[in-house]
Amino acid sequence: MRLLRAVVAFLAAGTALAAESFLYIGTYTGPSSKGIYVASFDERTGKVRGLRLAAATANPSYIAIHPNHKFLYAVDETSAGTVSAFAIRADTGQLTFLNKVSSKGDSPCHISVDPEGKNLLVANYGSGSFAVLPIGADGKLHEASAFVQDTGKGPNAQRQEGPHAHFIQVSPDKAFAVGADLGVDKVFVFRFDAKAGSLKPNDTPFAAIKAGSGPRHLAFHPSGKFAYLTNELASTVTAFSWNRESGALQELQTISTLPAGFKGENTTAEIAVHPSGRFLYDSNRGDDSIAVFAIDQAKGTLTAVDRTLAGGKVPRNFELDPSGSFLIAANQKSDDLVVFRVDKQTGKLTSTGQIAHVGSPVCLKFLR
């Protein structure tokens, strides 16, 4: 009987442990923020606890976690253009600085790690360029192995006077890298070689987006058949089919993220597909809301199903927790994180009443 109780207690402890995640928060540094923060997140209750500074660093506005969960990377969004590497302490979540290298451009704003964990891909907003930074076995970054400079401009004189790379990520099939440039209204597709850390123009080198749309971030569907692009300047989402053999994006639909009759200024920021593949979320800055869409599993097209106020000002970023049960909105201008429960049948969001305060939050990442 004593052994049975011990086994039950062990299994219960394991279940409890599996329901805990670290939540990392990238910020713009200033009077109310000093760098990257970390908290514990309870996937059963949606509670954010023990918020603390994990590493002091300048403007870590976008962060990425290595697939082995041992390292974290952060852009240093300044004109100097650098990216920093950190080691993650498994028991506390604290970060230890490893090294820093050039991003090969001005004001890097987005990074991602390839699925094999061999390279960090970076988009430089200020100068409109993409680069690949090899990752060593010790987690440290090496100097760029590939660099691509975008050219051109768009019709929006204030925001599209030149190229502004805003996103780059390896496709689920690992053969391509997809990069969005807000300034030139294009989504570039590169052939990607993880071993060489190279980017080469694909046979179909880009998908052109409606002029003035300002493509920002892209999210792939779990099936690998579809991709979704948030267009910052137009406040729309474009749905694509994705050809895993040729790396071609074919537009299926473009739909507004705003309610009918909306008047005023708005830009979109983040986009994500629910782990189930049934729903898509997009954040509005201006309307200060999260738009919810249902995804047609056969066609990949979207239907608007809900719109939920973000509970704060300027939801720059949001993230779904690993269980898909909660969505956390990072409200940049109200200095808070607001936790919503996800209805897995409808995709709709309901506030849990859980709010955590952190200065200028702009990027969230979970580590289970």
Order of helices and strands: HEEEEEEEEEEEEEEEEEEEEEEEEEEEE
Give the radius of gyration. Answer: 20 Å
Determine the structural class based on helices, strands and strand pairing: mainly beta
Alpha carbon gap, first and last residue: 33 Å
Shape: globular
SS strand fraction: over 45%
- Continuous helix count: 1
What can be said about the biggest beta sheet?
4 strands, antiparallel
Spans where pLDDT lies below 50 across 5 or more residues: 6-17
Number of strands: 28
Whole-number mean pLDDT: 95
> What spatial order of strands do you see in the largest sheet?
3-2-1-28
Helix fraction by DSSP (H/I, runs of at least 4): under 10%
Structure overview:
The chain has 368 residues and is mainly beta. Helix content is 5%, strand content 52%. The chain has one helix and 28 strands. The chain has a four-stranded antiparallel β-sheet. A hairpin with a 6-residue loop joins β18 and β19 (249-256). The model is unreliable at 6-17 (pLDDT under 50).
